[in-house]
Structures are given as structure tokens and as C-alpha cells.
Amino acid sequence: MKIFSNLRGLSNLKESFQTRHVKYGGYAALITLAVVIGLIVLNLMMGQLPLQIDLTRNRIFSISEQTLEILDRVETPVRIYGLWRPGEGNPVVIDVVNQYLVRNRNLSLETLDPDRNPGFIMRYDRDRRGISQGSLIVEGEMGFRVIAPMEMFDFFQTAGLEVTEIQVERRLSSAILFAATGTSSVIYELIGHDQTIPVSALGLYNEFDKENIEFRNLNLLMSEIPADASAILLMGPRRDLTPIEVDRLTVYLNNGGRFLVMANFEVRNLTNLNTLLGSFGIAYDYGIAVERDPFYVALDPRTAWPDLTSHEISSSLVNKERTPVVLFEPMSIIDIQPRRREIETFPLMVSSSTAFLRKDIDSDLEVRLPDDIPGPFIFGMAVTSPGDSWINPMEPIPQARLVAIGDPNLLPFGIVQGFDANIDIFLNSLTWLIERPETNTVRTRSHIMRPMQMTLVHVITFAALFIGVVPLGFFISGFVVWLKRRHL
């Protein structure tokens, strides 16, 4: 009887597994187990892929398209040495370097403890001042560059040092470009015009060296333009060009030369300079622009915050979370019409429509005088023009490029007042002139955390979403599940 009772119990247990509730419950358990196993496998697979999504406003954890262009040009081995002890490297620097390594197999990274490799590191210490821990050494067939840790970040002094901008990509891309290709451009600055402040006196050689740009002086009255000139610079002249200089610059530009000029409002007569620029469709208009729109006024009505256009030179600074370009007593640049058909002009910086050009620069009145000219005005202009084709019609015509800026204090004002965008617009102008657009937008990445600005519409939208729509969605889905399960 006991054996029969046990068999009957087993039979009842077997029948219990065939009920509708057990079947649906088993199916649900199997599906849940399959989903969990699938998620685990998918997570393991995704973890092996170098995929990431940068959701930061300035994409501070991604490398730019310009860096990708540089990496595409690297066809020889480039070694990157990280000078830090194992486990002590800056994670931001390591993350950026790893993104480079994934993009190009010619790049390699080796970590070196500076305390254990003093002899090796000394080979790269050219000025014998020492190379600090945390630095990067980038070496290729064409040379090497040393990037100090303080050069990879911008800091703001508060109670301690707070990182405000990340420059790792900017420094590393420039160093790789030089180490792999040896690309270095020579810019000749014209002297002999009683310049306000020459570039050589601004202390920016370290900045130019990181951009692979070398500056030299040139007296155009004494010699021709050298063959290795990548571009000619004329900044803040207090005296006009001579006819000889105009002739030599004209020949140079007609053969595909490049010219950057920043005129001085103190010079009332720029006849020869305007003759040169006029052949390319632009000219300076004497006077100082005065802004009346508070949105365009930086420090006072004679200091302008211009609108930036979407040209290659200025596009990297448009809508950028950083200090905008500030112009101190700028001049206006005229777009001459008519001009040669093949010439193309592109405004870079524009005033407000309420600005006016003060002709009497000694007057401090903020109201418009009868001789003043109403705006808007162009403060920066880029020009392209094919050169002379009669030299050899079978060869492509070299393209001449010019950039004219109506502020000789663009660099000094930017350095003294801390307007980094002024330096950026100058460097972008040079790299556009010498056709190195890959460095135009490899600039610093803002690391400043700003609070979210929410309007009343945003508040109402988010309130309706999280207070109404989301709870209602859960309620409806739960109600539907309950209706289905109550009939099981």
C-alpha cells in the first residue's frame, strides 16, 4: 500500500507540471533565462569592440576629423614615449593616445619610468632643462617633439589648479605631423615699416613651434621674397608700402603667393597697400569702428565682439564655448565691386548693423557724427585668386591667397587680456594660407562645467514627460498585462 501511495504521489506531481499555470510559468522562466544569457553574451562581445559615444558638448573625449586627416598621412613609424611610472599616467592623455593607436598601426606607445631611464631621456633634452614626468616624446623619421604635461592642459588658479581646457589632441597631432612628415612652414614678416609690435617681440615662438611654423624677418627693399616662403606677414605698419615692395608682392601673389596683413588705423594714407589689395578686390577704409549694440561691445564701444562666419578660418570658433574674438579699435575692409571674375572674397568677422566708422579718430563722442559712415562693416576678409596663366598654360594655375584683418593689435591684445580666440584666429589664418587645414580646428577643448540653462518651455516639457507620460505608460502596460494574466 505504501508503494502504491508513492506511485500515486508521483503521478500527481507529473500531472501538476502539465497544468496551464506551470506551462506559462516555465515558458516565462525560459524566456527570461534566454534574455539574460543573450545580454551577457552581447555585453561580452561589445566589450571587445573599440566603440564609444561621446555625449559631451565639446566632444572632449573624441578626436577631430582634422586629426584623422593627419593620421591618414602618417605612413612611417612614429613612436610615442610616455614618461610616467606604471599605473601613474594621466587617464585623459592615455585615452587620447589610445584613440590614435587604433586609427593608425604605424603609431606605437611605450611607457618609460623617467627615474630608471635618465640616459635615454637625455637624448631628447635639447636645452638641458630636464623633461618632466608625465611628458610625451613623439619621434619619427623626420624628427621629434617633446610635449610637457603643462602644455596639454589649460589651468585656472582657484583654491587649487582647475583644468579649464584640454590641449592633448592639439599638441599631439602637431607633433605627429612634424615627426612623420617633417612639415614645417617658414613665414616671413616684413620689417622696416615701424610696426607697433612685431611678432618676434610677442614671445609666441613656443606656440608657433608647436604648430610647426617658423618666423623670419624680411626687408623687401633689400632682397626678393625667398623661394622657401610659405607666406608673407605684415602686422601693424605705421608706414605704407613702397612701390618696389608692391611690385615684388604683386609678382609673388600672381605666382600663387600667400599674404596676411593687419593694418594700422593710425596710418591715414595706405595708398600703396590698398593698390596691392585692390587688385584682389579689397581695400582698407580709414577710421575706427564704433559699436552701439551692447551685444557686440566688449570693453567699450571701440572694442568689438564681431560675428564670426563659417569660413575655414573662423568656423572652428563659431558657437564655441570659450572667449570670442575681441578687436581693439578695428578698421573696416571694403569689398570692391566690380572686380576680376575669378577672385573670390569671404568675410570672416562682421560688425553689427548699428555700428559706424568714426573718421575723426581723435573724437571720443559715442554719437554718430556727420562724417561717420554707417555699418555694418567687415573686419576680416579672406581672398582667393588664380595666379597668372600666361607663364605656362599647360601647368595648373597656382592659387593666391590673402587674409586682411582690420586690427593690428589682434595678437598683443589677445595675449595681454587673455583672449585665446584672438591667437586661434591668427593661427587659423596662417594655416589656411599655407594650406594646412588639418590644423585649423585641432584646438583646445573646453572642460568648464556649465549649468544647464532651462527655459519655461523646457521645464513644462520635462515635467509632463516624467510626471505624466512615463507613469501613465507604466500604468497602461501593467493594466494590459493584468488583463491577459487574469484569464490564465
What does this structure look like?
There is one protein chain. The protein has 488 residues and is of the alpha+beta class. It has four domains: 1-49; 65-166, Glutaredoxin, CATH 3.40.30.10; 184-446, Rossmann fold (3-Layer(aba) Sandwich), CATH 3.40.50; 454-488. 33% of the residues lie in helices and 21% in strands. It has twelve helices and 22 strands. The chain has helices spanning 2-16, 20-47, 65-72, 91-103, 118-122, 168-181, 205-210, 243-254, 271-278, 410-417, 420-433, 456-485, and strands at residues 78-83, 107-112, 136-140, 143-147, 153-157, 161-166, 185-190, 213-218, 229-235, 258-262, 282-285, 288-290, 303-304, 307-308, 327-328, 332-335, 344-350, 356-358, 373-374, 378-386, 399-405, 445-446. The strands form six sheets. An eight-stranded mixed beta sheet has the order 8-7-9-10-21-20-17-14. Strands 2-1-3-4 form a four-stranded mixed beta sheet, covered by helices on one side. The protein has a three-stranded antiparallel beta sheet with strand order 5-6-22, with no helix packed on it.
Topology:
Elements: H1 2-16, H2 20-47, H3 65-72, E1 78-83, H4 91-103, E2 107-112, H5 118-122, E3 136-140, E4 143-147, E5 153-157, E6 161-166, H6 168-181, E7 185-190, H7 205-210, E8 213-218, E9 229-235, H8 243-254, E10 258-262, H9 271-278, E11 282-285, E12 288-290, E13 303-304, E14 307-308, E15 327-328, E16 332-335, E17 344-350, E18 356-358, E19 373-374, E20 378-386, E21 399-405, H10 410-417, H11 420-433, E22 445-446, H12 456-485
Parallel strand pairs: 1-2, 7-8, 7-9, 9-10, 10-21
Antiparallel strand pairs: 1-3, 3-4, 5-6, 6-22, 11-16, 12-18, 13-15, 14-17, 17-20, 18-19, 20-21
Helix pairs in contact: 8-9, 10-11
